[in-house]
Design goal:
Two copies of one chain form a homodimer. Helix content of chain A is about 50%, strand content about 10%. Chain A has about 350 residues and is α/β, with parallel strands linked by helices. The first copy, chain A, has a six-stranded parallel beta sheet, with helices on both faces. In chain A, helix 12 links the parallel strand 5 and strand 6 (about 290). The longest helix of chain A is centred in the middle third of the chain and has 21 residues, at about 145-165. Chain A is globular. Chains A and B meet through helix 3, helix 4, helix 5 and helix 14 of A and helix 3, helix 4, helix 5 and helix 14 of B.
């Protein structure tokens, strides 16, 4: 059995129902109007069900930012040149990027992963070295990668989780991405799964103008028409119109779910990865939290398909794991509200 | 000149434009797509303009939860009995309430204030003792309070800020409320200012049913018809259909603005107070941040009138300062993203 099959097979089919009921019961008895902490209550109950206890501690937090390059950048779909991908990986290592700053605030450690950057990093660089190939092919001309490489990219994500757990077990994982051009495969993925017209799913990425947006839509349509990815086969979609870091992001979700670890996914690209994961293993969704609603219009359709509501909308469109990092603080807070807010009985307040 | 007039007079008419421009410039040069941290960027630039520097430190954070009782509870407008107001004040002091737990996570200190609770607290209780009277009158029969008492409640809020600043200058103030029945005066206040029909502005508070909601709307309408508060006179509105803690909340905003301190307001009741403050002194708005969008339907109309967009919507309807406390972490984070995310030049990344 492959690592991928083995991982999918080891994801539990249900969460801890006893802990979930105990959480719901405590929430109802806390000295506040029933349900008045809204979404925070739902999150805290789900985290209790994942961890099997009321007093969940999310101490060790990790964000893994998966990087990859995209042959389709040849088609002029991004504002930034592809050389920015490796530059930003070095920026993550240096600690000066957006995700580093936000993760630090959330008490999370960021680690970058090379799934398919078109650059040879020094082997001593403290990143996950998981290069499958030097960037995808230009999928307007040929499939982005082979089916084997797609599986390899997902398994690389699973391996990253295994390595993190072996080193120092984490309590919460956040996903993030870096890859110039990667909103294009992400929009292509949700289009392939949903059949929704490409123009409804495609946004401006890092900030392209009207003409470039029109071109981007045409590029995605061309790839879909050429390869006809099978909507019932997530690996077919990933290999034909996906990205190597997107495969890695899918693997992170599957690996975390297999270990019973909550995983919070970031923006359009991370959610494309989460979508691949949950189409392969619907039970993985139990462990998944959607962080923010991106400015990228395709994001909403991904959330709809996953049946998840993002926690915040701060008009982010950055990736890297920035939205996931912001929301780690909210998940952490949710655990505190469940465990630490006292009940009517505990504090002698009259209930309704 | 009264304390109120003096405070309003000392609010600056404009923020530090130089710091604002420097912030905007740095945001544009950070190694990320321009504007990609959305609302976070706007917040950070406004905080820079308030504090007059790029590297804003929000170290000392305070939440003041103003409490008061409401004679209108006689009309059956709340699910909880009025005795819960003093019980919850004691809960805030004990540290077991929702706002305590959330504030602790945000690194903020909570202090309750008695503006008009219908209970005599021990004078040694560590709260702000600012009782104007033992609860408002039932405003379906007479004005909630006199005009003098309305001014006194606002000035009590200003005094609280003065006392906090004298003790240990704060960098950020959050507002919160406690007062059984206080969504009723809050909805009445926005109805009085805006002229919008009461049924469009009135929600279920702590969770009343359809019949009780209908009664609540009728109660508010009756008070507005009886007292005809002058929409151009915030103190007239506060005295006729307001609340003592709402006056205190208005005073907190004015006091903070006069000291150049950013202030983050909580839900429906805190925002009613902020509305009174900003109608008295429109320049106070520069220092004001709306935290969350409450489930209470009147909240939106308050935000519209204030020209503020709430940062989050987690379906809260609790008050106490809970939403303000959650958003303190976001304001703190915003300061870090502005100061600490490196520029393209600093990290050698190619810009677009």
């Amino acid at each position: 059995m492959s690592l991928l099959e083995q991982t999918i097979g080891s994801i539990k089919t249900t969460l801890n129902q006893e802990a979930f009921e105990a959480a719901k019961d405590r929430l109802l008895n806390q000295a506040k109007p029933a349900g008045s902490l809204g979404v925070m209550e739902d999150i805290s109950a789900r985290l209790a069900a994942i961890k099997g206890c009321i007093d969940v501690k999310l101490t060790n937090k990790r964000i893994v930012t998966c990087a990859g390059d995209h042959g389709v950048t040849q088609e002029g779909i991004s504002l930034f040149p592809a050389e920015v991908t490796p530059q930003m990986v070095l920026n993550f290592v240096g600690g000066g990027a957006s995700v580093n700053v936000i993760a630090k605030h959330a008490g999370a450690i960021v680690k970058a992963a090379d799934l398919g950057v078109n650059y040879d990093f020094d082997k001593d660089l403290p990143i996950f070295h998981k290069k499958v190939r030097h960037g995808t092919a230009n999928f307007t001309k040929e499939p982005a990668m082979t089916r084997e490489q797609a599986v390899q990219s997902i398994e690389a994500g699973i391996e990253i989780v295994e390595e993190l757990m072996a080193e120092d077990p984490m309590d919460l994982l956040g996903t993030g991405d870096m890859g110039i051009g990667n909103t294009t495969p992400s929009s292509a993925i949700i289009a392939a799964f949903s059949g929704i017209p490409v123009e409804k799913l495609t946004g401006r990425g890092t900030g392209i103008d009207d003409a470039a947006l029109k071109n981007k839509i045409a590029v995605i349509q061309k790839a879909l028409d050429l390869h006809k990815p099978d909507p019932s086969d997530p690996i077919d979609i990933l290999s034909k119109v996906g990205g190597l870091e997107i495969g890695g992001l899918a693997g992170l979700v599957l690996g975390a779910a297999a270990h019973g670890i909550p995983v919070i996914c970031d923006g359009l690209i991370s959610t494309a990865g989460a979508l691949i994961a949950c189409e392969l293993a619907p039970t993985a969704r139990q462990y998944l939290f959607a962080s923010h609603k991106s400015v990228e219009i395709g994001h909403k359709y991904m959330h709809d398909r996953l049946g998840l509501t993002p926690l915040i909308d701060l008009q982010f469109r950055l990736g890297e794991g920035t939205g996931a990092a912001v929301c780690m603080e909210l998940l952490d807070l949710a655990t505190r509200t469940l465990a630490d807010i006292k009940t009517f009985e505990e504090v002698g307040v009259t209930s309704a």
